[in-house]
Design a protein that fits this description.
This protein is α/β, with parallel strands linked by helices. It has one domain (103-346). 37% of the residues lie in helices and 20% in strands. The chain contains twelve helices and 14 strands. The chain has an eight-stranded mixed sheet. The protein has a four-stranded mixed sheet with strand order 7-6-13-14. Strand 11 and strand 12 form a beta hairpin. The protein is globular, with a radius of gyration of 21 Å. The two termini are 24 Å apart.
Length: 346
């Protein structure tokens, strides 16, 4: 397999050179030859339909507007591919290579809309449809008017309420943007694509590459009044979903993304009663925080929050936001872990 993997890497690099990539594209940087994303593309090419990965490389991954590199487009496709690898690596781990071989790229639905990809689980006679949306949660891109300073203190109103109505010390913080409306809009767009059919499951995926905290996204979904789960009862934000998956990265992911799974940086909300546990387990989507109308006990502490307070630090050249109430000892321990992993990789 490693020989095939190295051959696929060479083929991908050759295809990139032949495909007229726009200036400033990360694939043109010399460092890309040792980038983990190249390894992921090569593994995908060796395990699944090679034409699919070639199509990504000659098409969507070029990510340009009229020949000019477009970062937003690139991030969206990057997220589609990395989440696909998370699924494929999970299936391989769980000895479900037969399901990997059923992968369908950009399946066309009866309503004329395309999804990202689908799998077929023949033992259960189920087709599993996936649609992925990348959310820009990077404060440095969203709040461009803010002068972010190392060790600065920041605050976020999750649902748009005036900060002054939520805290008495707002003058000590710089306000940054919430992603509540952005994620709700993305969920609706995914929902508009799906069709509910027997023997088909619809999985909507929200990918967040950079965020200020893990907990705020739990609040967006599970807040008793304003959370998406509650709003879905009337406003039908994702009534065609069987499963909502939230997926975010870690600073130093391993090649199979197993540490993303183990640290709960991906977790699921089970919306319907149609999805078998076997599907959740095989695809590594079984970090479930909401199931059958019930909230995982460990998540209950986050659901009533209306704002978050954060500190911003830079460690080993990596920008990190932490909830203000996390003990300094825990922050230091995490930063040391990142340092150890970075130096180990070197």
């Amino acid at each position: 397999m490693e020989l095939l993997h190295e051959q696929c890497k060479k083929e991908i690099l050759k295809l990139i050179k032949e495909s007229n990539y726009p200036k400033n594209h990360p694939f043109l940087d010399k460092s890309f030859e040792n980038d983990q994303f190249l390894d992921i593309l090569a593994y995908l090419k060796s395990y699944i339909n090679q034409n699919m990965i070639d199509s990504y490389i000659t098409g969507k991954l070029k990510a340009h507007n009229k020949g000019v590199f477009a970062l937003d487009k690139y991030r969206q496709v990057f997220c589609e591919v990395t989440f696909l690898w998370y699924l494929v690596a999970g299936l391989i781990k769980n000895n479900k290579i037969d399901v990997v071989n059923t992968l369908i790229y950009e399946p066309m639905l009866e309503n004329g809309k395309k999804l990202e990809y689908s799998f077929y689980e023949k033992d259960l006679n189920l087709k599993i449809n996936f649609e992925v949306k990348n959310i820009n949660c990077d404060p440095f891109l969203k709040d461009t008017n803010i002068d972010f300073k190392k060790d600065g203190k920041y605050i976020k109103s999750y649902f748009g309420d005036p900060i002054e109505s939520l805290v008495t010390d707002s003058q000590n913080y710089t306000e940054i943007s919430s992603q509540y409306s952005q994620i709700k809009s993305a969920l609706k767009k995914i929902n508009d694509k799906f069709i509910v059919k027997d023997n088909e499951l619809n999985v909507g995926v929200i990918v967040c590459q950079f965020s200020t905290s893990w907990e705020e996204f739990i609040t967006y979904f599970l807040h008793p009044k304003k959370g998406y789960i509650n709003l879905n009862k009337k406003k039908k934000i994702f009534d065609k979903f069987d499963l909502v998956v939230f997926f975010s990265g870690v600073a130093t992911p391993d090649i199979n993304y197993e540490n993303i799974y183990q640290t709960w940086n991906t977790y699921s909300y089970v919306i319907s009663n149609r999805i078998p546990n076997e599907i959740l387990l095989n695809f590594r989507l079984d970090n479930v925080v909401f199931y059958n109308g019930r909230i995982l006990d460990e998540m209950s502490q986050f659901i009533n929050e209306n704002f978050g307070k954060y500190v911003f630090i830079i460690h080993e050249g990596i920008i990190q936001f932490f909830s203000e109430d996390i003990p300094k000892e825990s922050v230091d321990k995490y930063c040391k872990q990142i340092s150890d992993e970075l130096y180990h990789k070197k």
